[in-house]
Each structure stands twice: as C-alpha cells, then as structure tokens.
Design brief:
It is a single chain. This protein is α+β, with helices and mostly antiparallel strands. The protein has a single domain (2-59), classed as 2-Layer Sandwich (Alpha-Beta Plaits). 32% of the residues lie in helices and 33% in strands. It contains 2 helices and 4 strands; from the N terminus they run βαββαβ. The chain has a 4-stranded antiparallel sheet with strand order 2-3-1-4, covered by helices on one side. It starts with a strand and ends with a strand.
C-alpha cells in the first residue's frame, strides 16, 4: 500500500462531505483523510491500486484542487 499526500483547497466539513462520495467510490483507495487544520489542507490517501494522477483527477471532478506533495 502506498500513501499519497496532496495540498488541496478542501477547507471545511462541507468540502469534505462534497469530496467523500468521489473518493469513497475510487477503486483501490483503502483510507483517506483531510487535515483541515493544516494551512495546506493536506489530503492523505492510502491506496493499493489507485495512483496519484487518478486521485488528483477524482478530487478535481469533485470541484477541488489537489497538488501532490
């Protein structure tokens, strides 16, 4: 399993709720969380099949930005 980290603009509970269905249905993602207390709003994704680009595109489809750290 690999852990990916992204700087995002997911900055509140409503934003997390908006991105949740997109990340939850992404195949290969085991676990994810957003640290909204961190100034860079870091999204951490643990995946065994999804790659960084797929995760970034999924976040983008949900209406948010994600830049891999």
């Amino acid at each position: 399993m690999k852990t990916y980290k992204f700087k995002t603009n997911i900055n509140c509970g409503n934003c997390v709720r908006a991105v949740t269905p997109h990340l939850n249905k992404l195949e290969g993602v085991q676990e994810w969380k957003v640290d909204t207390d961190n100034p860079e709003k870091v999204l951490e994704v643990k995946a065994d099949a999804a790659d960084a680009e797929t995760i970034r595109e999924t976040v983008k489809k949900a209406g948010f930005e994600a830049e891999q750290l």
